[in-house]
From TrEMBL:
Xref: Gene3D superfamilies: Endonuclease/exonuclease/phosphatase
Gene Ontology biological process terms from the UniProt entry: phosphatidylinositol dephosphorylation
Record-level Gene Ontology MF annotations: inositol-polyphosphate 5-phosphatase activity
Domain Inositol polyphosphate-related phosphatase, residue spans: 3-372
Similarity-based family: Belongs to the inositol 1,4,5-trisphosphate 5-phosphatase type I family.
Protein name as annotated: inositol-polyphosphate 5-phosphatase
PANTHER family (alphabetical): INOSITOL-POLYPHOSPHATE 5-PHOSPHATASE (PTHR12997:SF9), TYPE I INOSITOL-1,4,5-TRISPHOSPHATE 5-PHOSPHATASE (PTHR12997)
InterPro entries in UniProt: Endo/exonu/phosph_ase_sf (IPR036691), INPP5A (IPR039737), IPPc (IPR000300)
Species this chain originates from: Oncorhynchus kisutch (Coho salmon)
Matches recorded under Pfam families: Exo_endo_phos2 (PF22669)
């Protein structure tokens, strides 16, 4: 007898798909469709970040083809109800997030507006596509993080998008989130936690407060996204270099650190670890892949600040970033950043209770299923 998964939740930063058009997409879609065929979900929620990639103004046409390839595929033909939201109005960067949400279902319900009460929901029917600025679209809410959050930093297309659903008489908020990255590996090594971690904590707390405020009917929620969570870099580097000679190189004209080099004391003084602003080259990279990176999972600490309001299922996949953009090396990490679990699906405690209470209500599919 075939088994079915009611709800399939997927999150993925798809920037590299558009920056390497034609090289990665076919394999990525093959993995996605294989997951759909394997789990046979009745409702699919796809949450994408960085739609269009780094050169989004050039790639946005391909982004529309990407969504069409998913929607029109043979594997998705049984889903007769579709809702697609793509915020790609790049001509107004003050409001644009460049994130996308795709919902595929057999028979579920969609809200008409926000703020919402149960009576505001209506049944989904046919194809519902919203592409562009999304101004005036009442079935979703989006917000870019305020510029005055951190005036000393240059922020880009970061923020969140929320939709609301009733599935089996259970209301849910599904929230797509894209948080700030680490601009410099060297600065990330300065303190524990780093200044970047503090910035992300403030932004995520802002999102949680916004979707939990009293003006909205409270519902269990799932947070999808590229949270850009990084390992506690200072603590990790200290651990990796315990048996090494550490050399700090500074610029001639200032006292600013330019690079950190850790050499093995034996083994012909091989360079164990080399860190620069955008370089993190560790000799034994396999530690991040073996046993799904369990040996370094203890340095994944950023979610701990939110244990009062959100939870997460057990991490059973290796760090999701920064995989090589060379499609012939799908399991190799680039030497640009310390590998980390940036891409996650988090949830409120009430949402986690639903998962554990109802057998097969949700299968959480993390990005490792979609990057090979």
């Amino acid at each position: 007898m075939e088994t079915y998964t009611d709800v399939l939740l997927v999150t993925a930063n798809v920037g590299s798909l558009f920056d390497n058009v034609g090289e990665i997409e076919s394999d990525w879609l093959r993995e996605l469709f294989g997951t759909v065929q394997s789990h046979k979900p009745r409702f699919i929620a796809l949450h994408f970040q960085e739609v269009g990639g780094k050169d989004y103004m050039v790639n946005m046409g391909h982004a529309e083809n990407f969504f069409w390839n998913i929607e029109s595929s043979e594997e998705m033909r049984d889903f007769d109800r579709v809702c697609i939201y793509v915020d790609n109005h790049f001509k107004n960067l003050n409001i644009t997030l460049l994130i996308g949400v795709c919902m595929f279902s057999h028979s579920f319900t969609l809200p008409t507006s926000l703020p919402l009460t149960v009576k505001d929901f209506k049944a989904v029917s046919g194809q519902n596509k919203y592409v562009g600025s999304l101004d005036g679209v009442t079935t979703m809410e989006k917000e870019k993080f305020p510029k005055n959050f951190w005036p000393d930093f240059k922020w880009s297309r970061k923020g969140f998008m929320r939709t609301r659903w009733i599935i089996h008489n259970q209301g849910l908020d599904l929230v797509n989130v894209h948080l700030f990255h680490d601009a410099s590996n060297l600065i990330a090594c300065n303190a524990s936690p780093s200044i970047y971690s503090a910035n992300r904590q403030k932004a995520l707390r802002y999102v949680i407060n916004r979707i939990s405020e009293s003006s909205y009917t409270p519902l269990p929620f799932f947070l999808f996204g590229d949270f850009n969570f990084r390992l506690d870099t200072l603590s990790l580097v200290q651990n990796l270099s315990t048996s090494a000679e550490v050399q700090t190189v500074k610029k001639d004209s200032s006292n600013e650190v330019e690079k950190i080099i850790c050499e093995e004391k034996d083994n012909d003084h091989k360079i164990l670890l080399h860190i620069e602003t955008k370089l993190f080259a560790y000799l034994h990279q396999a530690v991040f892949r073996e046993d799904n990176g369990r040996a370094i999972l203890k340095y994944d600490k950023e979610i701990a600040a939110f244990q009062d309001v959100i939870a997460e299922e057990e991490i059973l996949f290796p760090p999701s970033y920064p995989y090589s953009e060379d499609y012939t090396k799908p399991t190799q990490y680039m030497n640009t950043r310390c590998p980390s679990w940036c891409d996650r699906i988090l949830m409120s405690h009430t949402a986690q209770d639903i998962i554990h209470r109802v057998s097969k209500l949700a299968t959480l599919c993390h990005p490792h299923l979609l990057t090979s």
